[in-house]
Amino acid sequence: MTFAPKTLALSIAFALSFGSSVALAQKAGAVNLKETVKIAWIDPLSGLMAPVGSNQLKSFQFFAEKFSATNPAGVKFEVIGIDNKLSPTESLNALKSALDQGVRYITQGNGSSVAGALIEAVNKHNERNPGKEAIFLNYAAVDPDFTNSKCSYWHFRFDADTSMKMEAMTTFIKDQADVKKVYLLNQNYSHGQQVARFAKENLGRKRSDIQIVGEDLHPLAQVRDFAPYIAKIKAAGADTVITGNWGSDLSLLVKAANEGGYTGKFFTYYTGVTGTPTALGTGGAGRVFQISYAHYNMGGAMQGWMNEFKTKFNDDFYTGSIVAIYSALGEAMAKAKSTDPVKVAAALEGMKFKSFNGDVEMRKTDHQLQQPLFMSVWQKTDAKNAYSPENTGMTLVPVKTFESYISSTPTSCEMKRP
Q1: Are 160 and 407 in contact (CB under 8 A)?
Q2: pLDDT (mean) for 98-105
Q3: pLDDT tens for residues 161-177?
Q4: What separation, in Å, do the N-terminal and C-terminal C-alpha atoms of the chain show?
Q5: 8 burial class (0-12, 13-18, 19+ CB within 10 angstroms)?
Q6: Which candidate in 13, 186, 233, 407 could, as Cys together with 192 as Cys, close a disulfide (CB 3.0–4.6 Å)?
Q7: 11 and 116 share a domain?
């Protein structure tokens, strides 16, 4: 990728700033624990969602190397990848295997059904095994219950939850006069159900004139042909689709939309994820939107990392929460002067730090990262927005930034601390 002069200057400046801050942290507080911190990554490497899992495992390993060289705690990160086949049962087996090997840090993101099982299992393990506690680092499972009714001291979420993204998305939609008839199409598990629920609640509050003309929930990672759903969307007269679909469930949906001649808008959570850029091609230009804590043209150090990742793997890096996890772990371990999960968890609570997307905070009350969100739109690359996922000649261009205080949502969490 060729940087525009302004983007290149920003990248160099941010990279120098990042390097300087790390150097200062290592000099100022610094500890040199000289320990290896193993992280068990538990997510799909087989089935329809395997391409997403494979990308994210490579991403975790890529940044383990980067942050092993720069973190202020002086630790080395090592990632152990375990295929869970997108199954809660397989995930629990993987968790037990990791814990039996002495791994104290667990990460997962694909599927809130899996995350829910892991949170409960980690809670039980820690209660029964004092001195061998583990922390669950959630990088993409966005069911709001995990930081509300099911909140856990041992769980930290680095993605924005479904309600936060919908708060920002509907704040954007309320000013789009051409959005009048909305169809809700989502995966039939907690995340998809929550997307539909919060969409109806938020639109009802912000744009009561918008009609919900249809709603469907479909099996997760099982549908191979979305043409019947596109036919229903067209028949309902929907000018807009809101979907929390990800992976093959989004790429196959937009493929069917292109083939079926649907010309309405899509408001999504995961347009940038493996497979969807190729499925979109140029067909969704100006019509497909994504709400996320990142996009493909962030600038700064992130742009350099993305370019390096693409050169190394011929693949695109898009799970920015991974960077936030390593940043937070390094700072928390330096502050705690320890890799003990009990001490690290205490250091993570309430931590404020500068991430690739701005100033962020791990909210102490519920362990939900508070961070800026961006609405971006699918369009052709240009000099300012030059990164092209999956070499499509297209990209996600930011059109609106929502600062943390806008996207933040309240919590009902009653945290039980050890």
Answers
A1: yes
A2: 98
A3: 999 999 999 999 999 99
A4: 49
A5: middle
A6: 186
A7: yes
Burial profile 66-103: b = 16 or more Cβ within 10 angstroms, e = fewer: bbbebbbbbbbbebbbbbbbbbbebbbebbeebbeeeb
β-strands 288-292, 265-268: how paired? parallel
Q: How many CB atoms lie within 10 A of CB 283?
A: 18
Same domain flag for 282 and 379: yes
Q: C-alpha 54: how far from its chain's center?
A: 15
Residues 254 and 215 in one domain: yes
Spatial separation of the C-alpha atoms in residues 8 and 301, rounded to whole Å: 10
This prediction's pTM: 0.92
Tens of pLDDT, residue by residue over 47-66, are: 999 999 999 999 999 999 99
Exposed, middle or buried: residue 252 (CB in 10 Å: 0-12, 13-18, 19+)? buried
Find residue 185's DSSP bridge partners: 216
Q: Which two tokens stand for residue 11?
A: 């990248």
Say which amino acid occupies 208.
S
Residue 146: domain span: 5-160+299-371
Give 331's contacts (C-beta < 8 A, 6+ positions apart).
25, 71, 72, 73, 347, 351, 353
Distance CA 244, CA 250 (A): 8
Same domain, yes or no: 214 and 341: no
The single residue listed with the structure tokens 């219950």 is 145
Q: Which two tokens stand for residue 125?
A: 């393990």
Question: Residue 160: helix, strand or coil by DSSP?
Answer: coil
- Long-range Cβ pairs for the range 393-399 (8 Å, 24+): 393/282, 394/277, 394/280, 394/281, 394/282, 394/285, 395/296, 395/297, 396/271, 396/272, 396/290, 396/295, 396/296, 396/297, 397/295, 397/297, 398/295, 398/297, 398/374, 399/289, 399/375
3 state SS for 226-282: CHHHHHHHHHCCCCEEEECCCCHHHHHHHHHHHHHCCCCEEEECCCCCCCHHHHHCC
pLDDT (mean) for 113-140: 98
pLDDT on residue 29: 58
Answer yes or no: is pLDDT of 393 > 70.
Answer: yes
In this predicted structure, the answer to whether residue 203 has a pLDDT above a threshold of 60 is yes
Q: Give the pLDDT band (50/70/90) at residue 74.
A: very high
Same domain as 274, residue 190: yes
